[in-house]
Structure formats: C-alpha cells, structure tokens
Amino acid sequence: MFNHIQNNDFASIVQGRRSVRHYDENFKISKEELNEMISEASLAPSSANMQPWRVVVVDTPEGKEKLRPLVRFNTVQNDTSSAMLLIFGDTESYLYAEEIYNQAVEKGKMPAEVRDRQLGTILSMYPTLPKELKIEVAKIDSSLFAMQLMLVAHAHGYDTNPMAGFEVDQVAKAFDLDEERYAPVMIISIGKAKEEGHESVRLSSDKITFWR
C-alpha cells in the first residue's frame, strides 16, 4: 500500500473512492495481487493486535453461483466483479495470540517480558468474554480492516463496493465456516468499474463533531 501511496496523494485516494456496482466482467485481478492487497490491509489496527479479520475470496464461477442467492439485492456486483471478498470476524482470534506475540519477539519488535505479560492478560481474559462482546470486538476490528482494504484497492487502481445486504445467517455455512466462531461483517466487491459510481456528499464536520 505504502509504495502505491508514495506515488499518489492520500487525500485524492480517499476522495476519489467510489462505490461501484457494475464492473468489467472480463477483467480479473490475479490471486497474487489480491493476496498482496489483503496483506497490506492487514496492517490495520486491532484490539491487542489479535487481527480477527478473515477473508473468503469468491472469484470462481462456481463460488459466485453459490453466493448469488445470498446477495439478492447485489447480484450485479456478484456477477460482474473480479471477486467478492467476504469479511468475517474470528471470535476465537486469541488462539493465534502466542504465534503473533512470539513473532513480535523474534523480530525484535517486543521484549520477551512484555510478550509474557500481554499473553497472560489476553489468554486469561479473551476466552471468558461473553459471546456478544467477542462478536462486537471482532466486528469492530474487522471493519477497520475492511475500510483499509478498500483504500488499498483504490491505491492499486481498483474499485470497490461494501455491502451489508446479504443473508447474514447463511453465508458462513455456505462457505464451510463455523457459524459459531466466524461472525459475518460485510462483503466487498472489487474489480474495474464499467460504470463509474456516483459522487456522494458528506455532512460537514461541524454537524458530526461535538466539542466539549
């Protein structure tokens, strides 16, 4: 992401992003570049660095056919995009805590005593949290990843559209994920726009900010 942003003004990336619904159906983004964008988006922050975002990349005709009845109001994006990115929040992301923190120590990013203290807190607290709180934390963190992914995609020259209009109660099972563990967050379509999305307006900062 950062290499791309060096050659582009960040403000123009943010302001230039459009929600696109109709893509060039003949254009495909390579698996390698999709992996690169997902890796770049994974630099997003998360609670205790647990990185709970999980992505199912649906880019085959068979996968899109399976997804189509679950996105009844967004079939154009499904049918024409290069890929549909299903974003889930992993409510058991703490299972990767030791791997994450051990790597941090090995790479000289964290002292071993800090790792041990952090792991002690995480592994004693996270597993005992109420399920509703686990889902909320996973969704908040995964939403940060999703927004960063859309900005990364734009920096790579692609268009996206975030969607909440899908069968939330069916999508995990349809793609062989544990429904109890993985919480659906959103679906992002990605590709090359065939029709430009409309510009939208935003409320001014004085209407959304409260100074105290």
UniProtKB/TrEMBL annotation:
Presence of keyword Ion transport: no
Swiss-Prot/TrEMBL keywords: Oxidoreductase
Cross-referenced InterPro entries: Nitroreductase (IPR029479), Nitroreductase-like (IPR000415)
Domain Nitroreductase, residue spans: 15-192
Domain of life: Bacteria
Family annotation (Pfam families): Nitroreductase
Oxidoreductase listed as a keyword: yes
Similarity remark: Belongs to the nitroreductase family.
This protein's name: Nitroreductase family protein
Annotated source species: Paenibacillus planticolens
